[in-house]
Known about the structure:
By secondary structure, the chain is an alpha/beta fold.
Amino acid sequence: xxxxxxxxxxxxxxxxxxxxxxxxxxxxxxxxxxxxxxxxxxxxxxxxxxxxxxxxxxxxxxxxxxxxxxxxxxxxxxxxxxxxxxxxxxxxxxxxxxxxxxxxxxxxxxxxxxxxxxxxxxxxxxxxxxxxxxxxxxxxxxxxxxxxxxxxxxxxxxxxxxxxxxxxxxxxxxxxxxxxxxxxxxxxxxxxxxxxxxxxxxxxxxxxxxxxxxxxxxxxxxxxxxxxxxxxxxxxxxxxxxxxxxxxxxxxxxxxxxxxxxxxxxxxxxxxxxxxxxxxxxxxxxxxxxxxxxxxxxxxxxxxxxxxxxxxxxxxxxxxxxxxxxxxxxxxxxxxxxxxxxxxxxxxxxxxxxxxxxxxxxxxxxxxxxxxxxxxxxxxxxxxxxxxxxxxxxxxxxxxxxxxxxxxxxxxxxxxxxxxxxxxxxxxxxxxxxxxxxxxxxxxxxxxxxxxxxxxxxxxxxxxxxxxxxxx
Length: 472
């Protein structure tokens, strides 16, 4: 049985160095209050700006066009438009050579999120600013649009986007398109889960999800500490359920247990005996992507902490009923059992985002089909799909980092004579295996260069809260 103990501070540092650049690694997405630097240069009035399409007189139903004409722009570099700022999108935008490409990013999230540490922020172990990196810190980035991509026009090579704040639509043309929108939580049409999302049911994929969970947990304890609250309502508020047996679910449950046994025991000593923690998994066991010995070890540790772990138990729905005159939320399971709860964290299953689901792209198992070069079929080599939303021919698992594809041929993508000509395959690329740039010379020693996408598994890790974890 393999397991290890690690120091959380070193884990954060090591994990951050895998992807994030050395400068500004742990900056917050929102600016801090400080004296303005003299090196800051505001863009000229004539320079393209993210708010330019939103400030036009176009209505929300019409679409403004951002840099529509290649001739009018006088562009000399091919434009790479990246949809998404997650692991695949952020990594690609950061590593592409800005002297060769005009790189632009469209994403509703103006930051990259280090998702392995997201459960820690939901309970207050880490602050939110510690796991995010603003998109605008990418050096040489052509432009960033805080918007949602709504429609893909592969013939006109344009993406229709919708402003996140005003709902105004605008178009962004591209020469190369990289779809890296990730996936969303899949509720499997479980009754009342989506309806109660944000009230007593919470997903755990984004930063605003973690904020909602933290606020709800605090609310439950404060309400339960009121001396006038009935016992049935108190016990309901202090019951927390996590649905799913993957790393995110297990790590969140471990973090929550740490808070209960440390902070809650000091702040609410009278409530500790009423707290109930339940983890539900529809499969045979937890951490299915890990070895069985590691999964069993993690499972036993959870049980030793008096956490009610229920494998082979699927959620069948959520009920709202009145018990002793109090409105109670009840989780119902396929085996007929029920558990009252105050907060339920849903981290089970993945579903395609609306852009992918409504597009004309070929889908298989809810993911975009791509070839060995991560190219979308029948798109003349102009459209790629990366990360969780892509399904490679080898059925690789969702990847955290994506190899950068450099075009070494002299193919001129800006020449209109080549608009209907398929782009030739890329040149050889060496997988970026080393976690630090200073060791990048070692990549070629451990990996062979190839024009095809190569997935290199760096291993997997699941923490057990403070002071423990498993690695495979």
